[in-house]
Design goal:
By secondary structure, the chain is of the alpha/beta class. It is 31% helix and 17% strand. The protein is built from twelve helices and 13 strands.
Length: 324
């Protein structure tokens, strides 16, 4: 590459840390959503830093992207950026796959243990100063079905297996002997798998195939003792149907870290649904995660400058990084 490349950074009010190495090599323009069009003109690279709050600005500013060759997203999910013009364009899209895998897996294991050991009720009883002895459940040999066979789903599978759970997976392609998920079943097999699962963990990307995957029909197939954990994307679960399933005792519990609308509105009925744990999209956000995201982009940027192979290239038609 000749000349000094231009990088646009869509960052809202908070800039990515440790951008010194990139700034040494490139002309970096930081912009909020309102200023993105100006920053994109002449830019060859776009870093989308604050994905949740600013990603829609990319579609609105796309006509100004006259030289753009590569977009990097500071998240694992890319569904908010898959607008038709970007999908059809030759612009390369990469994500931050790998940063959140282990933290999200740890979060899922924590939720499984919280359900099995009845920790939410223990905390409630402590606030009431009530001594109420109960028996708790074991998780070893419990069936865990991980929906999503990407890197996050695989990390979840490894950790739940290490805790003694019987793990299987659901993915686009079936596989008999998988090192992380045991057996991976094709997505069409989900109805036959739900009746035997004790824990169903959603770690799939949001696509046309996964949107609304967990609806009233899916909950009717699950055990009354089963729990659902969603760390994928909010719209994969039909919230009203989940609330109905929880209120009727159709399933025993659920935990949601992702929602169709974020932040979750204060008057949303999910807040008061029984046996539901609500967390604010924080499963992957460990101490130092912003530094790790910035370091990944800096590494990828140096690869791009050198004409090397970029990490985490997304198949824009599929909506995720294909497994190798």
């Amino acid at each position: 590459m000749t000349g000094r490349p231009r990088v646009a950074v869509l960052c809202g009010d908070s800039r990515p840390p440790d951008m010194g190495a990139v700034e040494t090599t490139a002309d970096v323009r930081y912009a909020t959503g309102n200023g993105l069009s100006d920053a994109l003109r002449g830019a060859e690279v776009l870093l989308v830093w604050e994905v949740l709050s600013t990603a829609t600005a990319v579609a609105g500013s796309w006509p100004a992207a006259d030289r753009l060759r590569w977009v990097h997203v500071a998240s694992a999910g890319v569904d908010r950026l898959l607008f038709p013009e970007l999908v059809r364009s030759p612009v390369i899209l990469t994500n931050s796959r790998g940063i959140f895998d282990q933290p999200i897996a740890e979060y899922v294991l924590g939720l499984v243990l919280a359900f099995a050991k009845d920790l939410p009720r223990t905390l409630d009883l402590q606030k009431e100063r009530t001594w109420r002895h109960r028996e708790s459940e074991r998780i070893d040999r419990q069936d865990a079905l991980v929906v999503g066979s990407g890197s996050i789903g695989r990390a979840i599978g490894r950790l739940l297996s290490a805790a003694g759970m019987a793990v299987s997976g659901v993915g686009r392609t079936a596989r008999r002997a998988d090192p992380d998920l045991g057996v991976i079943h094709a997505a069409g097999s989900l109805p036959s798998l739900l009746p035997r699962a004790d824990y169903v963990v959603v770690a799939a990307p949001l696509t046309a195939d996964t949107k609304g995957m967990f609806d009233a029909g899916a909950f009717r197939l699950m055990k009354p003792s089963a729990r659902l954990i969603n760390v994928g994307r909010g719209p994969i679960v039909v919230a009203d149907d989940l609330i109905t399933a929880l209120r009727s005792g159709q399933i025993a519990g659920a935990a949601l870290d992702v929602f169709a609308t974020e932040p979750l509105p204060r008057d949303d009925p999910l807040w008061t649904a029984p046996n539901l744990v609500v967390s604010p999209h924080m499963a992957g956000d460990f101490v130092g995660w912003l530094d790790a995201l910035a370091a990944l982009f800096a590494d990828n940027f140096q690869r791009w400058v050198a004409g090397g192979q970029l990490l985490n290239v997304v198949d824009k038609e599929l909506g995720y990084v294909p497994s190798t």
